[in-house]
User: Fold this.
Amino acid sequence: MTFDPAVLKQITLIGTGFAVAFLAALWLSLIFWAFRDIRTRTRDNFMRVLAVVVVALLFLPGILIYMILRPAKTLEEEYQHSLEEEALLQSIEDSAICPGCSRRVDSEWLACPSCHTRLKKKCEHCGRTIDLPWNLCPWCETPVTGMRKEAPVVLQSHDPEQEPVQKTLLDDEEFYSHP
Ligand SMILES: [Zn+2]
Ligand SMILES: [Zn+2]
Assistant:
């Protein structure tokens, strides 16, 4: 079976034409893809132009370079990430730290369950939790015994071994400066 050289030439020509058309389409779509992708990742116009130029000039190796150097997160992901971080920081700020053992404690707790440090006191009139240094209940305006540095009020404990621990914790400077 032999081919007519003219037909062979025709087939080669058509094949080459298809290959060139395919590569051109691939080249254009990669440029378009890079353009769309970089737009979601940076607001910097210089970076956007650079990404498109690199892909346009280097074609497939350009795409590889772009994939390596492009910002890892899209602007949307970056935004979500910052929201999550903010929420996390907020929850950390909301929960107080025990001055005695540095464990996280609830802002409403009266004492630390881990080290038994007195954290808050209760108003005798309205029963709401208030900060230890306050000598007036902010909820009902009833004067309460304030915990001052000169005369620290030691938490009454039935366990005699707890008493010295409470005293040292109440003398702690950090204990008083804590909100
Ligand atoms: Zn504690
Ligand atoms: Zn009160």
Helices lie at 5-41, 45-69, 75-94, 163-170, 173-177.
